[in-house]
Design goal:
- The protein has 8 helices and 13 strands.
- The chain is an alpha+beta fold.
- The protein has a domain of about 90 residues: Helix Hairpins.
- Strand 12 and strand 13 form a beta hairpin.
- Helix 1 crosses helix 2, helix 5 runs antiparallel to helix 6 and helix 5 runs antiparallel to helix 7.
- Bound molecules: zinc ion.
- The site of zinc ion (ZN) has 8 residues, from strand 13 and helix 8.
- Keywords: Coiled coil.
């Protein structure tokens, strides 16, 4: 699971429900084990106007006359359906007072950052989409999660760092107000949404493949189990068939040698057994034929049951305003001091790649900054000295 996604747990259900209900104008009073939601007259929702009690959290089963709020509850599914139909838009500003987020190539570095000063140059707008992803197959592989995808609204650049920031600042503890209406129009949003969905699908491809492999293995095992059962059935029938054949032979003997009374009895009995023998023969032929073809109908049925159904549903789009500019990093190592100026966005992080002045390699978490005496030099350069 990447940082920019959350499983559909109780807390995400509560967070989503709270955000949605507030966005349509409801007020919520939260207590230990329940919420009282007030829906004002004239609110555009299928919920009836007035107050609703939602049981959630610890001891929620002790709340009387309440609807339940949890991932499986009727109420949540209803809210989800309504939200999907409405695709609410909100607006959020990621603001200036936050600490500068240092690049990961300096976090395990021998060089220290004495000061980091951000200078904003211009305001940018990003679109952050929240998607619900449901991967369904036979129940044991069922998964559901929410995932954010962030893109700059103008340059259409993917902003992965902002996805984490978005989930952080919109978490239930953060009490961020996203009630402002967005300026996005449907024409703005549609092309971004299509791109966001593609990015999302690329991002979860590996996981889908993995689940697909597991489901295929489960299907294979089930097919094999079915095949063995049928093989066993064939063996049982073959045995029965051969027993009947011996009995019929014995009766034929009796018919040829016995007295007239016994002959009549034996003839009757042989007729019965013969018909049973033929029926089993037909069943056996049919089973063997299906076996030789590999039980195609059962295979189809089993594989269909194990096939994946991936649903990607956009839930919300949020217009996020952020500041883009530069950050001056004051670096020190021993007595040496150096200032590096690099592109930075609030909530976006460092936007420039910084290269080693000696070997030209990009500085990364794995290959961090090591010295600043003669320009910025990477760890590998020092190790190779
Ligand atoms: Zn280097």
């Amino acid at each position: 699971m990447t940082d920019a996604e959350v499983p559909v747990t109780q807390s995400t259900v509560e967070r989503f429900t709270e955000r949605y209900l507030r966005s349509i104008g409801c007020s919520i009073k939260r207590s230990e084990n329940h919420w009282v939601v007030t829906v004002p007259d004239g609110t555009e929702t299928d919920l009836s106007a007035g107050s609703h009690t939602l049981a959630c959290g610890k001891d929620s089963d002790q709340v009387d006359n309440a609807e339940h709020l949890n991932p499986e509850s009727e109420f949540f599914q209803r809210i989800l359906r309504e939200a999907i139909g409405r695709s609410p838009t909100g607006k959020l500003s990621i603001g200036g007072e936050t600490d500068v987020e240092l690049p990961d190539w300096i976090q395990n570095s021998a060089v220290e950052v004495r000061n980091a000063q951000f200078t904003p140059y211009y305001d940018r707008t990003a679109a952050v989409f929240l998607f619900r992803i449901g991967i369904e197959t036979v129940s044991e592989y069922q998964q559901e999660f929410l995932r954010a995808v962030a893109m700059d609204a103008r340059s259409e650049e993917h902003l992965p760092k902002l996805e984490d920031t978005f989930l952080e600042v919109t978490s239930i503890d953060a009490e961020t107000d996203t009630n402002d209406r967005s300026h996005f129009t449907e024409t703005d949003v549609q092309p971004l949404l299509d791109m966001a969905r593609d990015l999302l699908l690329d991002g979860i491809e590996e996981r889908i493949d993995e689940i697909h492999r597991e489901a295929s293995r489960a299907a294979d095992a089930e097919v094999e189990e079915y095949r063995q059962m049928q093989q066993q059935r064939i063996q049982e029938l073959e045995e029965e068939h051969s027993n009947l054949s011996s009995k019929i032979n014995e009766l034929s003997e009796a018919i040829n040698t016995g007295d007239p009374d016994a002959r009549v009895q034996a003839l009757k009995k042989r007729k019965e057994l013969k018909s049973e023998y033929d029926d089993i023969g037909d069943t056996l032929n049919e089973l063997r034929e299906r076996r030789d073809k590999g039980f195609p109908e059962q295979q189809r049925e089993i594989r269909k049951r194990h096939s994946l159904d991936v649903q990607v549903t956009p839930l919300t789009v949020t217009e996020v305003e952020y500041e883009q500019g530069e950050v001056d990093l004051e670096l020190t190592k021993g007595k040496t001091k150096r200032i590096e100026t690099i592109g930075y966005g609030v909530g976006i992080g460092i936007t420039d790649t910084v290269r080693c002045s000696s070997c030209g390699q990009e500085l990364t978490k794995q290959n961090p900054l090591h010295t600043i005496e003669e320009g910025v030099r990477c760890m590998e350069c020092i190790e190779n000295l």
